[in-house]
Structure formats: C-alpha cells, structure tokens
Amino acid sequence: MPQSTDIDQEKLGQTGVEKRSREEIALLLNSIRINIARVHHDLNNPLSIIAGNAQLLMELAKVMDLGDDILLPLQDIDEAGTKMAESLHKLIVLKDMIPRKSA
C-alpha cells in the first residue's frame, strides 16, 4: 500500500518537502554564483596590476636594451598572467551558467 501512495505523490507533482528542497537549492546556487563573482573580482584586480607592471617593465627593458636576462622572465610573468586571465574568464562563464535567483 505505501508504494501506491508514493506513486500518487509522483503523479500529483512535487511535495512540500521537494518544493522546500528546490528553494534551498536555488538559494545555494545563488550563493555560489555570488561567491564566484567575488573570487573573480578579488583575483582579477591584482592580476591586472601584475600584468600591467610586467608589460611596462618589458617595454622599459627593450628601450634600455637590458637583454634577455631581464626580458625573458618578464615575458614569463606576462604569459602566466594571460593564462590566469583566461582561467578567470572560464570562471565567469561557469558563473553565468548558474541560473539567477528568481525574485
């Protein structure tokens, strides 16, 4: 007999517990979305400073003809910054895949 009750509930749609769980899941997903945005912001700002300074120093190293001993490590920093920026972009794509909490 209990099995028929379970089937009846499935036919009728979601129960109160299922609805509450869905609401909790929606809140959790919204929290994850907000935290992803915060992490992106917290990492992107210092990354922009590092990348900008690396590019400035590369230009100065070229103008001052400081050679590869200075230029190559700066290029490594710049390339690493580019890779990090690409990863941060993927983080934002992931965030945008999470549905916004409906009002």
Task: Give the helix/strand layout.
Elements (H helix, E strand, L loop, with lengths): L1 H11 L3 H48 L4 H30 L6
Helix pairs in contact: 2-3
Main attributes of the structure:
single chain; 103 residues; mainly alpha; 3 helices; rod-shaped
Give your account of this protein's structure.
- The protein contains three helices and no strands.
- It is mainly alpha-helical and 103 residues long.
- The protein has one domain (18-97).
- The longest helix is centred in the middle third of the chain and has 48 residues, at 16-63.
| Elements, N to C (H/E) | HHH
- Proportion of residues in helical segments: over 70%
Class derived from helix and strand content: mainly alpha
β-strand number? 0
In quaternary terms, these chains amount to single chain
Integer average pLDDT: 86
Largest sheet properties: none
By DSSP (H or I, 4+ residues per run), the number of helices equals 3
| Number of self-contained structural domains | 1
**Separation of termini?**
40 Å
Strand content: under 5%
Q: What is Rg? A: 25 Å
The backbone outline, from C-alpha atoms, is rod-shaped
| pLDDT < 50 stretches | none
